[in-house]
Amino acid sequence: xxxxxxxxxxxxxxxxxxxxxxxxxxxxxxxxxxxxxxxxxxxxxxxxxxxxxxxxxxxxxxxxxxxxxxxxxxxxxxxxxxxxxxxxxxxxxxxxxxxxxxxxxxxxxxxxxxxxxxxxxxxxxxxxxxxxxxxxxxxxxxxxxxxxxxxxxxxxxxxxxxxxxxxxxxxxxxxxxxxxxxxxxxxxxxxxxxxxxxxxxxxxxxxxxxxxxxxxxxxxxxxxxxxxxxxxxxxxxxxxxxxxxx
Length: 246
What we know:
Layout: H1 3-22, E1 28-29, E2 34-40, E3 46-50, E4 54-59, E5 64-70, E6 77-82, E7 85-90, E8 94-95, E9 101-106, E10 111-115, E11 119-122, E12 126-135, E13 140-154, E14 159-173, E15 178-193, E16 198-211, E17 216-220, E18 225-230, E19 235-238
Parallel strand pairs: 1-8, 3-7, 3-10, 4-9, 4-11, 10-12, 11-13, 12-13, 13-14, 14-15, 15-16, 16-17, 16-18, 17-19
Antiparallel strand pairs: 2-5, 5-9, 6-7
């Protein structure tokens, strides 16, 4: 088992531990009677997700939220816009059925915050000059992007998988999180890892990596300039088998 595989295994264990801790209080279970409800919102450019939700982003000229979930849980899901921020949460712990889903229709987005065990994906490429993704807990993000700059902050046992392109990316990780970004092409990348987190990146020009603890960075793309600072048992290594994301 190679180093990044060990990191992934440790990250997976961290997710299981956090989920087990969360499951001590399982919350109200969905009754399986699935209904759909639309919630109106004002315009927003920031999204904050708190709770155990399965979220799909869908670009639209008409912002809003469509919730499909158990009939007995619908009233517990709260949707509000405060300033330029959309917030989705629940007023109690809930356990939605597997068929539950929340679709967020958005015009543009520059900040996504995920807390708890939310799962987020996008139906199409997320475009923009700038996007920040901030994760805490054991959430998951999986999507394609086309960005000028990406800021990624992962704490806890969150997992992020991105593909597409970003001219520049800045990654900060603590805890047991994982970042799968070897299919996200970038010219410049700065990555800082503490704890046992692991990151895979594809960069063609400048890579700056700072690793402490037993975290690891695996890079591909044959960058022209690589500067690394490693303390503890961490590592920064080239993946010579890495492929062009395109």
